[in-house]
User: Fold this.
Amino acid sequence: MFSLGALSLYDVLREIIELPESEAYRELVKKVIDPGFDKALDKVERVLCVSPHPNDCELGVGGTLASLAGKGKEVKLLVVSDGSLGTLDSSISPEKLSEIRYREQVDASKVLGVKEVLWLGYSDGRVPYNNELRNKLVCLFRSLKPDIIFAPDPWCPYEGHPDHRNVGLLTAEAIIFSPLPHYGCSEAPDSESWFVSYLALYNTPRPNAFNNITSFIEAKLNALRLHKTQFEHNWEHIKSLILFSAAFYGRKASTIYAEAFKLLPAQLLHAFPLAEKI
Ligand SMILES: [Zn+2]
Assistant:
């Protein structure tokens, strides 16, 4: 529990409100909500990355997942759809493509040090926004007990893919319901409630956390390259974009390569509009 020392909470808040806006909200989180906010990735033990399609987690935070696995954290992946739409080649059937992408995802995950890949098997392009999937996610969060969950940012204003929007939004909602004991989990009625400490949104236009992946850029590239159905025909192009993005965020993190995400303590996911500013 954070100690305010000799200062009352009111005194602390008065000090914070005098700070420049760029510092004030983050300071509010650290002083009042989560003193370990800046060290969140060091604190967590169990990590789950939710991926609308195979390869989304690698693209968004593959280097970060590899760095966390390298520090001995338990990293798992949850792939929501079967990836059966991910081709421009009409000669390959959706079923065959899905089979190949399953193997690609399993192989790529090994490169990153991921312990387990879980699948929900929804049809690519038809991941629903509904109570059934929200409930499945709550059940999974309660059984896997992740401390931090990575998911695509559903509030990215230019995200056009409904699978990404639905997965991101349902993940945030499931994090809200998972700790509530009266929220029933249909697949495991006796499941114990679980409080997920952090949501980290990748593919975000509003990052507030930059993770040094300089030692893991090769792992990220090697993992992505194994998704041959997606990147074999345009690998040099994709590789350049990945390196550019990692270098761009690296400048923000004062390092060579970095990944960026919007990190939020779970308490900020409801009725806290200042979360936008943090
Ligand atoms: Zn995707």
